[in-house]
Amino acid sequence: MVALALNETLRILSQARKERRKALLETEAKTICMEYDIPVTKFKLAGKAAEAVRLADEIGYPVVLKIVSPDIIHKSDVGGVIVNLKNAREVRNAYKKILENVERHKPAGRIVGILVQEMAPSSTEVIVGAIKDPQFGPALMFGLGGVFVELLKDVTFRVAPISEQEAREMITEVKAYPLLKGYRNVPPADIDSIVKILLSTSKLVMDHQEIKELDLNPVMVYAKGAKTVDARIILE
Ligand code: ADP
Ligand code: MG
Fold first, then answer.
1. Which terminus of the chain faces fewer neighbouring Cβ atoms within 10 Å, N or C?
2. pTM of the model
């Protein structure tokens, strides 16, 4: 029992393998992150609107609601994410709305439940990723969120495992790095917390080589600490 409790990651990976499922659910990916000390938003899974309200009360407002489905990888594309819900009524409405949206965009999609999670205050967003290169094996990726990665391809890679020195280099060598040092009324971001996430991610993909892709996108970085808002893990 104790051994099982200590290794949720193995349990989740073997469950996915058994179901021949390549994409882990956000709940599963975030549970693995937690076991590797990667900070994530608090989350709880609801099966009914009333339960979502009870969980939101526990977590504290504002909250975010998200669809959890093995058939939906990009949740916002199907209207499966609603942020900034400030009270029970908004949670109840959002719960209904997400199910309607999903029914419209993905009628055959299996639904595990609706995730209720803490709303991370907006801040500088970074992306930590990993891919398994057929030649070099696991490699880590780092970049700043939004246009920097998507439009400007301002990202950097290192073959895993990485050292702390390499993690620091990855952060300082992207062109957008000055944004992390603070500007105008934005305080400097907690670089050490990003270093820790990169090192933990490196350990995770080295320990579990069946991970083909990993995507922590976005990670909100604060003056103190950081928080992963969305996590995706794809298996080979
Ligand atoms: P997907 O990438 O599958 O569409 P996300 O979980 O990334 O879904 O949600 C979409 C966007 O909603 C995120 O990029 C982020 O801007 C916002 N978001 C999601 N969850 C949270 C959260 N817990 N706190 C704050 N913002 C969030
Ligand atoms: Mg996302």
1. N
2. 0.94
